[in-house]
Amino acid sequence: MDYKVIIVGAGPAGIFSALTLADLGIKPILLLELGKDLSERKRRNSTDMLCGWGGAGAYSDGKLTLSSEVGGLLGEYMEPDSLNQILQTSDEIWVDHGAPEEIFGEASPKLEDLSDRARLANLTLIPSRIRHIGTENCQVVLDRLRQSMVDRVDTRTSSPVESLLAENGHIQGVKLESGETFTSQFVVAAPGRSGASWMKKQAEFLGLKTQASPVDIGVRVELPAAVLKEITDIIYESKLIYYSKTFDEKVRTFCMNPYGEVVIEKTKQVVTVNGHSHTYKSSDNTNFAILVSSAFTEPFDDPIGYGLYIARLANLLGNGPIVQRLGDLLAGRRSTPERINRCLTRPTLPEATPGDLSFVYPYRHLQSIIEMLRALEKIAPGVYSRHTLLYGVEVKFYSNRIELSPELETGVENLFAIGDGAGITRGLIQASASGILSARAIARRLKDGSS
User: What's the Cα-to-Cα distance from 437 to each of 22, 74, 393, rounded to whole Å?
Assistant: First the structure.
């Protein structure tokens, strides 16, 4: 064998798997990454935004969500105590490599009061401790992780893997698009969310059992920071869940960015919106997403295709993202540049085209989003203002979920699938934890001589 372990994907899941294996004395290890090395990635390049060493986390807001209730599905594979321990280990590694010490959302009487007020508004507040790295610090922390693996892990960037190689139900290695083949005892597939289609293709080729995950479609909300200051001072990022009266579907807040900015997120297929907040600079606004979860069964079972369709429709109408005042949406008219200029909320994404989001979203999505805004008004007066800005489309695609063992091994022996690419995590901490979990399982087998 060329290697003991080959890891496909150098996002947080792959990085933490490689780092843990190296710390446990396993070698040789090969880490393969489709995109560029960290130092070569450019934020203005749409491909580099989501793909490359460090994964999508390199240009993210850098929120480490420390609660086991959000950010992934590892709770279905581990007992609560074990999950909390591995999440703590993941967090400690991030801190050791430069993540800040401060934690937001610690238990307090103010947090309990906010939770009670949320219940009265038909909202559920998910308590969540958060460590915020900040967009400008993410690459610094990731580079320290990169340096900690030098001389311990063979790393190859700009090396797309064409296929996983298996024989008689046992993993054999990988074949690169260049034609090179590397053999190994174990393979860890960690392609990230941007590698969802690749992972789906490999699963079909290898005969792995999978199930489609829901797609989250919604808007990025922007308003004056003062409106949410009381909440963001208490918990920084409030994770609130609402079930719409009209359709009884789940609606949630996501990725709240106090004093942050709305940003464009480009892929080869669509242009969508997202939000960031920085450590050393700030705006006068706070932004967050409202997302509606959509799942499908028969005869249609392509949630990713559905989400892409909605995003493409916005791109068609707005030549990119669309922005609309809530007051204009409720009045049944489009926003114009003149109306946006009169808005009390000054947009942080001037590239967004003023338009009409009712041409983009299905009725059930818009109705659920509006109901959520009304509910939020009860705990943060000013949210349901005509001057609140809505940007579209924000959409979160999740990989098809692969059937895995408690150690995250697939139906192919010694092939593990981890992180967002396996459809089991949705955030930095749980993705990192999945890398640790798989690495520990592999190290045990190698040291026991069971493989």
Answer: 14, 10, 35
Rounded Cα gap, residues 397 and 286, in angstroms: 24
Residue 60 tokens read as 């993210």
Q: Please, which pLDDT band fits residue 451 given cuts at 50, 70 and 90?
A: low
Q: What pTM, to 2 d.p., does this model score? A: 0.89
Q: In CATH, what number does 3-102+132-211+400-448 get?
A: 3.50.50.60
Secondary structure in 3-state letters for the chain: CCEEEEEECCCHHHHHHHHHHHHCCCCCEEEECCCCCHHHCCCCCHHHHHCCCCHHHHHCCCEEECCCCCCECHHHCCCHHHHHHHHHHHHHHHHHCCCCCCCECCCCHHHHHHHHHHHHCCCEEECCCEEECCHHHHHHHHHHHHHHCCCCCEEECCCCEEEEEEECCEEEEEEECCCCEEEEEEEEECCCHHHHHHHHHHHHHHCCCEECCCEEEEEEEEEEHHHHHHHHHHHCCCEEEEECCCCCCEEEEEEEECCCEEEEEECCCCEEEEEECCCCCCCCEEEEEEEEEECCCCCCCCHHHHHHHHHHHHHHHHCCCEEEEHHHHHHCCCCCHHHHHCCCCCCCCCCCEECCHHHCCCHHHHHHHHHHHHHHHHHCCCCCCCCCEEEEEEEECCCCEECCCCCCECCCECEEECCHHHCCECCHHHHHHHHHHHHHHHHHHHHHCCC
Q: 336: closest CA among 353, 319, 321, 348? A: 353
Residue type (1 letter), 64: L
Spell out the domain ranges in the chain. 3-102+132-211+400-448, 215-396
User: What number is the average pLDDT over the span 6-31?
Assistant: 97
Torsion, Cα 130 115 373 251, to 10 degrees, reads 70
pLDDT band at 450 (very low <50, low <70, confident <90, very high): low
d(Cα 231, Cα 237) in Å, to the nearest integer? 8
Tell me which residue of 15, 269, 290 sits closest to 138, measured CA to CA: 15
Tokens of 135: 């967009």
Give the up-direction half-sphere exposure of residue 175: CA atoms within 13 A in the CB hemisphere.
8
